[in-house]
Amino acid sequence: MKTSAASKIRLGVNIDHVVTLRELRGTPYPDPVQAAHLAERGGADNLTVHLREDRRHIQDADVRALLDAIRLPLNLEMSLADDIVAVARLVRPPMVCIVPEHRAERTTESGLAVRRERKRLDPVVESFHALGIRVSLFVDPVPEEIEAVALLRAHAVELHTGPFARAPDAEARQRCWEILARAAELADGLGLEVHAGHGLHYGNVEQAARLPHVRTFNIGHAIVCESVLTGMEHAVRRMKRLIDCAGVPG
Ligand code: PXP
User: Fold this and answer.
1) Which residues, including other chains, have CB under 8 Å from residue 100's CB and lie 6 or more apart?
2) Which of 47, 62, 75, 88 is nearest to 138 (CA)?
3) What is the residue-level pLDDT of the chain in tens, covering all 250 positions?
4) I want to staple 97 with a disulfide (CB 3.0 to 4.6 A). Which of 5, 8, 136, 166 is the partner?
5) Which residues are catalytic?
6) CA 207, CA 214: separation in Å to the nearest integer?
7) Distance from residue 220's CA to the centre of ligand 1 (Å)
8) 140 alpha carbon – ligand 1 mean position (Å)
């Protein structure tokens, strides 16, 4: 396979939806720590989990277990809700990504309104700095928002790739790519590390990887979906073997 500048982009694997499967049934499996170890074996550079206010997938105990068990840096996605900020201050992940959160949304829908939220963000970001936690803010590729992230002295900005990923055709996708590229140039020029994510999948990641200055992609849903398919044959074979062996007398 061709290697290029793109291969220097780090892959943050978001395992929220492994835990969605567990929470759907209230079973003890699948175990996110096991998923994290497998992701590491596959070459993940970081691990990401989103501790949502409604705890619909990742639970506080999962965050603690992951921080205890994994070697990869954990990126905690989080809103500015007081109880979530309190958890982050307590468990001290190496990095957090602050995102907006709306209760009814299926997934994070838009970037953070950094300028509007400046008063709330300032003390939270400052307290994370004091604890040695690196801070990234998830924003739409809008120059004024990126400038506001730099003013907060955040370590990184994560550019929202959702509209790029959802673009209806190649032309629209290229327009989104150009907006992201200009945003990445601006962020890099302001001294921010550039991350990107949301909606990236096996069909669009190569184009995304040609964006300038991007150091990390955070990808979740597509990787978990691919795992379900690539693991199906093995999973069925293992179950069938157990049934068949149990049926053998003696
Ligand atoms: N980055 C951020 C800030 C997110 O909120 C999410 C979704 O949890 C992702 C990346 C990953 O998005 P996806 O699951 O679509 O790959």
Assistant:
1) 79, 108, 109, 110, 111, 112, 113, 138
2) 75
3) 444 444 589 999 999 999 999 999 999 999 999 999 999 999 999 999 999 999 999 999 999 999 999 999 999 999 999 999 999 999 999 999 999 988 777 777 789 999 999 999 999 999 999 999 999 999 999 999 999 999 999 999 999 999 999 999 999 999 999 999 999 999 999 999 999 999 999 999 999 999 999 999 999 999 999 999 999 999 999 999 999 998 767 6
4) 136
5) 50, 77, 198
6) 12
7) 6
8) 13
Most informative mutation of 10, 57, 76, 77 for ligand 1 (most atoms within 8 A of CB): 77
Q: From ligand 1's centre to the CA of 245, what distance in Å?
A: 42
Task: Name all domains of the chain by residue range, CATH numbers in brackets.
Answer: 5-246 (3.20.20.70)
